[in-house]
Amino acid sequence: MVSIIVIVLLMAVLQLAMALHIRNTLIAAAGEGARFAATADRGPTDGVIHTQRLIQQSLPDSYAERVTARYTTVNGVQTIEVEVVADLPVFGWVGAGDALRVAGHAMEES
């Protein structure tokens, strides 16, 4: 009886660790994609492509399907925002659709 409870708790902790790993990986990729897109000779499309490549290096390709980038203005400063929308894994790689939304921002260079 006790071993069943221990196994269930261990599986829950491993699932939480995987969800946090995916979230942190997507945040890092979105931030790096925004910085890449913000350089003087790049644009939002370059940021999307760069972000997708970074995600595909670490996670299944399905996590790189919904990446968008756009120009935004924050406090009067032109920035680029890269947003990634993905499933939040609840059981293994399967999870709640569009539950995970992360974004990276960078000030655009001129």
Keywords for this entry:
elongated, 3 strands, alpha+beta, 110 residues, three-stranded antiparallel beta sheet, 2 helices
Report on this structure.
This protein is an alpha+beta fold. It has one domain. Helices cover 46% and strands 34% of the residues. It has two helices and three strands; from the N terminus they run ααβββ. It has a three-stranded antiparallel sheet, with helices on one face. Strand 1 and strand 2 form a beta hairpin. It is elongated, with a radius of gyration of 17 Å. The chain starts with a helix and ends with a strand. The mean pLDDT is 91.
* Global shape: elongated
Instruction: Indicate the radius of gyration in whole angstroms.
Output: 17 Å
Helix content, binned percent: 40-55%
The strand line-up of the biggest sheet is 1-2-3
- Overall tally of domains: 1
How much of the residues is beta strand, in percent?
Answer: 25-35%
Largest sheet: 3 strands, antiparallel
Q: Show unreliable segments.
A: none
Order of SSEs: HHEEE
Overall pLDDT: 91
Secondary structure tally: strands: 3
Oligomer: single chain
Number of helices: 2
